[in-house]
Specification:
The complex is a heterodimer. By secondary structure, chain A is an all-alpha fold. In chain A, 74% of the residues lie in helices and 0% in strands. Chain A folds into 3 domains: 2-61, no CATH class; 77-138; 174-391, MetI-like fold. By secondary structure, chain B is mainly α. The mean pLDDT of chain B is 81. Classes of the chains: A mainly alpha, B mainly alpha.
C-alpha cells in the first residue's frame, strides 16, 4: 500500500509535466495552460489518479460483496454513505428553493450544499430526539431475551429480524438505544449549553454594563477557571462530585459542572460583545431615561448581540456535546441505565477487532461514534456558513 | 532588549502566580466537599477506630489551609506521597512495598511526552504545508477539499477518529498494533511505530486548527501593499507566499501551534484510554474513577502546568517574533 502511494506520488511528477505540455500543444498555448504552474498541473494529475483509484477500488469491492469476510465492506459503505448524503443535501437544497415563503427561498438560494446538508441533519436529529418514544421499537432499558444478537437480521448468521442492528452484551436492542441516545446525549448537551449560555451571557453583560468591581471580580474568576483545560477540570470536579452523588444525581452534577466551565468561555465573548454595545448612544439614551439594569441588558444589549451569540451557541454546543461524549466514553459522564452514545461506543468497542471476519458486527460498534461525529460536522457546517454570511467575508 | 526582557519576566511571574492560584483551585475543588475518603480506602466493613487512624495518618483531620500548604510543600520537594489505590492494596492485601506517586508518574510522564512530541513532529510540518498550499491555491478544489476534510476532523470526537484508524490501519490492514504498549529497551523506531496510531489520531485532531489558522494568517497578509509589489515585480506565487508572506505570518502561526499543543493535553486523555497507552492521561482517568484524590490532584496539576506553560510560550513567542516590540522606538 505504501509502495502504491509512493508510485502515485512519483508518477504524478512526470505526469503533471506531460499534462501541462500536452495541454499547451493541443490547445495551441491557451493562456490557461500557458500560465499554469507546475504545482497546479501536478495537483490535477494527482487528484485524477486518486479519483480513478477510488472508483477502481469501488468496482473491485463488488467482487467481495455478499461474502462474509468482506474486506471492502467499510469502503463500500462509506462511498454509499457519502453519495446518499450528497443526494440528501442537494435534494433538500432544491426543496428549500422551491417550497416556503419568499424569505426562506431567498435564504436557500444563497446557501452552499454543506449548509443545507447540516440543516437537514439537525432537523433529523431533532425529530429522533423528540419522538424517540414513538420511533424506537423497544425501550432503552428493556433487556430482551438474547444477548449479542448479530446485526443484519439474517438468522443463518446469528441475526434476528426483530433486531435489525442486533443486541448488546446484556440483550438490549441497539437500534432502540441509538434512537434514545439522540434524546439523552443530544438533549443533555442542549440543556447544558443553554445553562452555560444563561450563566455566561448574564455574567458577561453584567460585567460590561456595571464595569468596576463586578467586572474585575467576574473577569479574574473566569481567568482562573480558564487556566485549567476544560476536560481536565471537568474530570477533577466530577471526582469531587462522585463522592456526593451516584447514578442520575451524578449526571445532573455533570450538567452543572460542564455548564459552569463552558460559561467561562461564553462570558468572555458576551463581555467583549457587550463592551462594544454599551458605548453606543442608544444605551446612553436608555440610561438617561432612567431604565433599570434588567431593561438595559435584555431589551437593549441582548437584541443587538444575537448574531455573534447565535454562532457561538452552535460552536459551544459542539464543544459541550463532544465533552459530554468524551466523559461518557471515559465512564464518568451520563450514567447508565440511560442510553448514551459515548457509553455505547465504549461498551461495543471490542467488536471493532472483528472487522476482518465480521464487518457488520464492528460497523455497529462505530455507529454511535458516527452519530456523534455526524451531528457535530452538521452543526459546524451551518455555523461556518452563518459566520461567513454575517461577516460578509469574501476572501 | 531591556523592555522585552521586562515584558517576558512579567509574563513569567504572571504564569507562576496563575499556577499557584490554580493549585489552590484544584486542591479546594476536591477537598472542600464533604466525603469520607477513609471509608473509600478501607472499604465498607471498616471500624470507626480504623477510619480515625487512617484520617490521622493521611492528615485529613487537620485544618484545610494547613493541609493545602503541606501539599504545596510536598509538590515543591517532589515527594508526592502515596496514592489511595496503593494504600488500599497495602491495607487490604498486606505487603509494605508502597510505590510512591512520583515513581508511578515518572515513566508515564515520559510516555505522554513522547506521544505529544511525536504528534508535534508529524502535525506541525503537515499542517504548515497544507495551510500554505491552501493559501496558494485558494478557492480551488484542493482548498475546498482541505476545508471540508479538516472541518470534519475537528468536529469528530477523538475516540471516533481513533477507532476509524484502528479499523483501517490495524485490523483490516495490519500496519500498526492496536494496543500501544511501549516497553523499556525498545529502539526509537520501534517505539515510534507502536505509538504511531495514537499520534496519528491526535494529528488529525490538531492539524485542522493549525492548517486553518496558517491559511487565514497568510490570506490576511496577501492584501498588503508589499505583497502587491512583489507580485508586480514578477515573483512567482509560491515565492510570494513562502518568502514574503510566511515570515510575517509567523507570529500568529507560532501562537496557534503552541495553543494546539496545549489542546493536545486534553486530547491525550481520551486517546490514551482508547489505545491503553500507559501515560498520565490513563492514570488520571483511572484515578478519577477510583476517587484517588492524591493522584487526581497531582495529575490535574501536571496537566494544568503544561497548559499554562504552553500558553505562556505562545505569549512570549508572539512578543519575540514581533519586531515592533523587540525594537521599541
Amino acid at each position: 500500500m505504501i509502495t502504491w502511494l509512493a508510485a502515485v506520488l512519483l508518477g504524478s511528477i512526470p505526469g503533471g509535466w506531460l499534462f501541462r505540455f500536452l495541454g499547451q500543444k493541443l490547445t495551441n498555448n491557451r493562456p490557461y495552460f500557458r500560465d499554469m504552474g507546475f504545482g497546479m498541473a501536478f495537483g490535477y494529475v494527482l487528484g485524477a489518479a486518486i479519483l480513478v483509484s477510488a472508483i477502481w477500488m469501488y468496482i473491485v469491492s463488488w467482487s467481495t460483496a455478499g461474502a462474509i469476510p468482506d474486506t471492502y465492506f467499510f469502503y463500500r459503505t462509506a462511498v454509499h454513505g457519502l453519495i446518499l448524503f450528497a443526494i440528501m443535501g442537494v435534494a433538500f437544497l432544491w426543496f428549500g428553493r422551491l417550497v416556503g415563503t419568499a424569505g426562506t427561498r431567498k435564504l436557500f438560494r444563497s446557501m452552499p450544499v454543506t449548509a443545507a446538508f447540516g440543516i437537514l441533519i439537525i432537523i433529523l436529529y431533532a425529530i429522533c430526539a423528540i419522538f424517540a418514544d414513538f420511533i424506537a421499537p423497544y425501550g432503552q432499558e428493556e433487556v430482551l431475551g438474547n444477548a449479542n444478537v448479530v446485526p443484519g437480521g439474517n438468522p443463518a448468521l446469528g441475526g434476528n429480524p426483530d433486531f435489525p442492528l442486533g443486541t448488546d452484551q446484556i440483550g438490549r436492542d441497539i437500534l432502540s438505544r441509538l434512537i434514545y441516545g439522540a434524546q439523552n446525549t443530544v438533549g443533555i448537551a442542549f440543556v447544558t449549553t443553554c445553562l452555560a449560555f444563561f450563566l455566561g451571557v448574564t455574567g458577561g453583560f453584567l460585567a460590561s454594563t456595571l464595569r468596576g468591581w463586578t467586572d474585575q471580580v467576574l473577569s479574574r474568576l473566569v481567568d482562573v477557571l480558564m487556566a485549567i483545560p476544560a476536560l481536565i477540570f471537568a474530570l477533577l470536579l466530577i471526582t469531587a462530585a462522585s463522592s456526593l452523588f451516584t447514578g442520575f444525581g451524578l449526571t445532573v452534577a455533570m450538567i452543572v459542572i460542564i455548564a459552569v466551565i463552558d460559561a467561562t468561555r461564553v462570558f468572555r465573548l458576551a463581555r467583549a460583545v457587550g463592551m462594544n454595545i454599551v458605548v453606543m448612544d442608544y444605551i446612553e439614551a436608555a440610561k438617561l431615561r432612567g431604565e433599570g439594569l434588567g431593561y438595559l441588558i435584555f431589551r437593549e444589549i441582548l437584541p443587538n448581540a444575537t448574531a455573534p451569540l447565535l454562532a457561538e451557541f452552535g460552536l459551544r454546543f459542539c464543544f459541550v456535546f463532544l465533552t459530554i461524549a468524551s466523559l461518557s466514553f471515559l465512564g464518568v459522564g451520563i450514567q447508565p441505565p440511560l442510553a448514551d452514545w459515548g457509553t455505547m461506543v465504549r461498551d461495543l468497542s471490542q467488536f471493532i477487532n472483528f472487522a476482518s471476519f465480521a464487518p457488520q458486527v464492528s460497523a455497529v460498534a462505530l455507529l454511535p461514534a458516527l452519530a456523534i461525529a455526524l451531528l457535530t460536522v452538521a452543526v459546524n457546517f451551518v455555523v461556518d456558513w452563518m459566520l461567513h454570511k454575517s461577516s460578509g467575508l469574501k476572501e | 532588549m531591556g523592555s522585552v526582557g521586562k515584558i517576558i519576566l512579567q509574563r513569567l511571574a504572571l504564569g507562576a502566580l496563575t499556577l499557584v492560584i490554580v493549585s489552590f483551585v484544584i486542591f479546594a475543588a476536591v477537598n472542600a466537599l464533604p466525603g469520607d475518603f477513609a471509608a473509600a480506602i478501607l472499604g465498607q466493613g471498616a471500624t470507626e477506630e480504623a477510619k480515625t487512624a487512617i484520617r490521622a495518618d493521611i492528615g485529613l483531620d487537620r485544618p484545610f489551609f494547613e493541609r493545602y500548604f503541606t501539599w504545596l510543600g510536598s509538590i515543591l520537594t517532589g515527594d508526592l506521597g502515596v496514592s489511595y489505590a496503593q494504600m488500599m492494596f497495602a491495607t487490604n492485601l498486606g505487603g509494605d512495598q508502597l510505590i510512591s506517586i512520583t515513581d508511578q508518574i515518572g515513566p508515564r510522564f515520559f510516555n505522554t511526552m513522547f506521544l505529544a512530541g511525536l504528534t508535534a513532529v508529524i502535525a506541525v510540518p503537515l499542517s504548515l504545508t497544507i495551510g500554505v498550499l491552501a493559501a496558494l491555491y485558494r478557492g480551488s478544489v484542493f482548498d475546498r477539499v482541505a476545508n471540508v476534510t479538516t472541518l470534519s476532523s475537528i468536529s469528530a470526537p477523538e475516540f471516533f477518529l481513533a477507532y476509524v484508524l484502528i479499523l483501517f490501519l490495524a485490523v483490516i490492514n495490519p500496519l500498526f498494533p492496536v494496543i500501544a504498549l511501549p516497553e523499556d529497551g525498545m529502539s526509537l523506531i520501534e517505539r515510534a511505530r507502536i505509538t504511531m496510531l495514537p499520534a496519528l489520531t491526535l494529528t488529525l485532531v490538531v492539524t485542522a486548527h493549525m492548517m486553518r489558522m496558517t491559511r487565514a494568517a497568510i490570506l490576511n497578509l496577501l492584501a498588503s501593499p508589499y505583497i502587491e509589489m512583489a507580485r508586480l515585480k514578477g515573483v512567482s506565487p509560491m515565492r510570494v507566499i513562502v518568502v514574503h508572506a510566511l515570515p510575517n505570518a509567523l507570529a500568529p502561526i507560532i501562537n496557534v501551534i503552541a495553543l494546539n499543543l496545549a489542546y493536545l493535553i486534553t486530547g491525550v486523555v481520551v486517546v490514551e484510554v482508547v489505545f491503553v497507552y500507559p501515560g498520565i492521561g490513563q492514570l488520571f482517568v483511572d484515578a478519577v474513577k477510583n476517587r484517588d484524590i492524591p493522584m487526581v490532584q497531582v495529575c490535574c496539576l501536571i496537566f494544568a502546568a503544561a497548559y499554562i506553560l504552553l500558553n505562556l510560550t505562545a505569549d512570549v513567542m508572539s512578543i519575540l517574533s514581533n519586531p515592533r516590540l523587540r525594537h521599541p522606538k
